[in-house]
Amino acid sequence: MRILEALRADPGLSDAARVRATMEELYRINLETNVGRLAPLISEVAQVIPSVAQTFHGGFVTRQYGIVTGMIADGTARGSFDEVDPLGMQHLIFGPIVTLSLSREMTAQFPDRDTLYPVARIKASHIDLILKLLLGNRTAAK
């Protein structure tokens, strides 16, 4: 969370570069760290112990959502981004990341998992599409 907060506050980044770096970090968190890969387990445990999911959602998921939607609102206020529905954009950003994480966990023992779910290609395409939506006719900063 500290990395995401630092990216949002970094005055050296353009708004587009900030979103790009943040999405890179969201992919890292959700696909490479234990806390990000807890989602399938928490989903299962939540059926029996709802407080586990409430704690995870409040302490992790909601904080990520807030940072990202705040970052987009900041960029919109500065004129860098087109107006977008914050809830829709939140789900366009997080949905594919969570789906990819779950898909890769489900297929962890598949010999062709990396062919079925190539992280680098999916991530690059996802980030580019989000930036195109946010920037409209502006140019995406790499």
What labels describe this entry?
142 residues, Tetracycline Repressor, domain 2, 7 helices
In short:
With 142 residues, this protein is mainly α.
Tell me what the structure shows:
The chain is mainly α and 142 residues long. It has a single domain (2-135), classed as Orthogonal Bundle (Tetracycline Repressor, domain 2). It contains 7 helices and no strands. Helix 2 (15-32) packs antiparallel against helix 7.
Strands, total number: 0
User: Biggest sheet, in brief?
Assistant: none
> N-to-C SSE series?
HHHHHHH
Output the CATH topology.
Tetracycline Repressor, domain 2
Number of domains: 1
Shape: globular
Radius of gyration: 16 Å
| Tally of individual helices | 7
Strand coverage percent: under 5%
CATH architecture heading: Orthogonal Bundle
Q: Low-confidence segments, ≥5 residues, pLDDT <50? A: none
Distance between the termini: 23 Å
Q: Could you say which structural class the secondary elements and strand pairing correspond to?
A: mainly alpha
- CATH superfamily name? Tetracycline Repressor, domain 2
Instruction: State the name of the first-level CATH class.
Output: Mainly Alpha
User: Roughly how much helix do the residues carry, as a percent range?
Assistant: over 70%
